[in-house]
Amino acid sequence: MRLEIYYVVAILVIAIATFVVAAVINRILLRYFRAVSEKLKVDETTYAVTRRLVVGMVYFGGLLLIVSVIPAVSDFTVALLAGAGFGAIVVGLAAQETLSGHITGISIAISHPFQMGDVLTVKGEYGTVEGISLRHTIIKTGENKRLINPNAIIGNEEIVNWSIGDLPVYWHVDFGIAYDADIDIARSIILDELDKHPDVMQEQNKKADVVGLSDFSVDLRAYFWVCDRPTAWGTGCAIRESVKKRFDMEGVEIPFPYRTIVYKKDMEHGK
């Protein structure tokens, strides 16, 4: 009976000590390590992942102490590790995604494909990196949504990082005009509206090319440079609207699909 009480007390003491030590270390890292990181120019991503990794190791160490303090549990663990066999394979497969996520999180902190505050496009979603942990990455979209992307998945995705390298972006906007509309007039209108917009980089190349012949329209695409990705979307919307108004004013038709329906009864009567 006394032995059982001893084990219970030992487990409680170790558990409480583990939580206290983890909390203290986390606070120290939040307060002092951040200041040191700023002086050493350690980026926010490395700092966040390192802090979570250190705290996680403290919890793992506490768990090992709890296992080792109880002979029965310790012997069982040794036997389990010695003869794991099929069970180890099953557990390994079950934990594969979790371990992969943690490894990818560490890899992100080391290789820096993106950092806190970077602007990304992931799986068609555009947003800003708001948080990075060992298991997932949080991206804040323009609609103020938070996308929780598991690192195991995001590590295998093609990512567009708009914050790496030169910030200017080569953007495009598509237009469709009728087949009997004058292409040169339409192109002139598009280029004129590009010249007027204050966010279009005028010193860079601007053009409007025919990029396709669809079923109902001749497809033109306007290309232009803007200072960064957040500016590109709003500029594209403004250009699209101003060109549409000019097309209306100058008689450049924007077609829409239409169908001619012939009834069988009319065909039989020669109509």
Structure description:
This protein is an alpha+beta fold. It has 3 domains: 2-83; 113-161, Roll (SH3 type barrels), CATH 2.30.30; 169-250, Alpha-Beta Plaits, CATH 3.30.70. The chain has helices at 2-39, 44-69, 71-82, 85-94, 96-111, 151-154, 183-196, 229-250, 264-268; strands spanning 119-122, 125-132, 136-141, 146-150, 159-161, 169-177, 207-213, 218-226. The strands form 2 sheets. A 5-stranded antiparallel β-sheet has the order 4-3-2-1-5. The longest helix is centred in the N-terminal third of the chain and has 38 residues, at 2-39.
Could you give a short account of the major beta sheet? 5 strands, antiparallel
Number of strands: 8
Radius of gyration, in Å, reads: 31 Å
| Low-pLDDT segments | none
Helix content: 40-55%
Tally of structural domains: 3
Strands ordered across the widest β-sheet: 4-3-2-1-5
SSE string? HHHHHEEEEHEEHEEHH
Task: Please give the alpha-carbon distance between the first and last residues.
Answer: 103 Å
Task: Label this structure with key terms.
single chain, Alpha-Beta Plaits, SH3 type barrels, 271 residues, 3 domains, elongated, five-stranded antiparallel beta sheet, three-stranded antiparallel beta sheet
Write the layout of secondary structure elements.
Layout: H1 2-39, H2 44-69, H3 71-82, H4 85-94, H5 96-111, E1 119-122, E2 125-132, E3 136-141, E4 146-150, H6 151-154, E5 159-161, E6 169-177, H7 183-196, E7 207-213, E8 218-226, H8 229-250, H9 264-268
Antiparallel strand pairs: 1-2, 1-5, 2-3, 3-4, 6-8, 7-8
Helix pairs in contact: 1-2, 2-5, 7-8
